[in-house]
Amino acid sequence: PTYRFVIVDRRARVGLITLNRPQQLNALCDELVSEIGAALDAFEADDSIGAIVITGSAKAFAAGADIAAMQALSYIDAYRGDFITRNWERVKTCRKPVIAAVAGYALGGGCELAMMCDFILAADTAQFGQPEIKLGTLPGAGGTQRLPRAIGKAKAMEMCLTGRLMGAEEAERAGLVARVVPADGLVEEAIAVATKIAANSLPVAMMIKEAVNRAFESGLQDGLLFERRTFHASFGLEDQKEGMSAFLEKRPPVFRHR
Ligand code: HXC
What we know:
Blueprint lengths: L5 E6 L2 E6 L10 H16 L5 E5 L4 E3 L4 H4 L4 H6 L4 H9 L4 E5 L2 E3 L1 H8 L2 E5 L3 E3 L13 H9 L1 H10 L2 E3 H7 L4 E3 L4 H13 L3 H13 L5 H15 L3 H11 L10
Parallel strand pairs: 2-3, 3-5, 4-6, 5-7, 6-8, 7-10
Antiparallel strand pairs: 1-2, 8-9
Helix pairs in contact: 1-4, 6-7, 10-11
The protein binds hexanoyl-coenzyme A (HXC).
The site of hexanoyl-coenzyme A has 20 residues, from helix 2 and strand 6.
């Protein structure tokens, strides 16, 4: 496919999606979100890709859903068209690991997009926020649900009710981001982390992703059962035999299903 608002690239086994709508600080219009979906489709179909990085620019990961496009939207069009959220599910349904590499603003839908990824690596310049209240609306792609799960009710409620921004350091302390790195090395670091993930067995990475996500969808007993069944299933993989043989033979593993 050809892309207008994203740049799609690869570094060895890592797929890289760079949001590229600089005049609007990567504001998320329908077309941009569809293009993220198309890029994910292509990477997911490509057996030589083991992990994916989504990033923006130094100034903005994404400053939110496109306010110009939303301003005149009617209720009936938003409701019948399932405004924006329909497309967004594609990030959530991606079965390969997806890392958000966030520098600058990740606001509104931008923060929600980052939270939909498997984890966030933040530049020290990153600023997160759900400022929708200041526009007379509320988060619509997971902000009121994923933010409290990530940072707890008190901080999430405060952020959604005031619309204040949260810097990278606070975001790391609160558990919103996995790690903070210097801004000028952000994308390279994200690619390095993704490369590490992609060196392992892909089916195992997929199982781990599914199992961790279960923690947010089920009670502890059900989650533990899901984990145990999946753990048992891993013994059916050639890569488990290879990984454990390699350890016992004191050599690096050569995973077949990458
Ligand atoms: C459309 C946007 C935009 C947005 C920025 N721009 N954010 N356009 N939608 N979300 C445009 C500006 O209009 C401006 O265009 C250009 O990008 C540069 O922005 P400035 O405001 O001039 O830059 P700056 O002064 O540096 O301020 C940066 C900013 C500010 C703090 C990020 O732009 C801002 O507050 N943006 C809106 C953030 C927001 O409210 N996001 C939530 C949206 S609601 P021109 O043409 O003037 O150069 C949402 C709901 C999600 O996300 C629902 C589920 C999908």
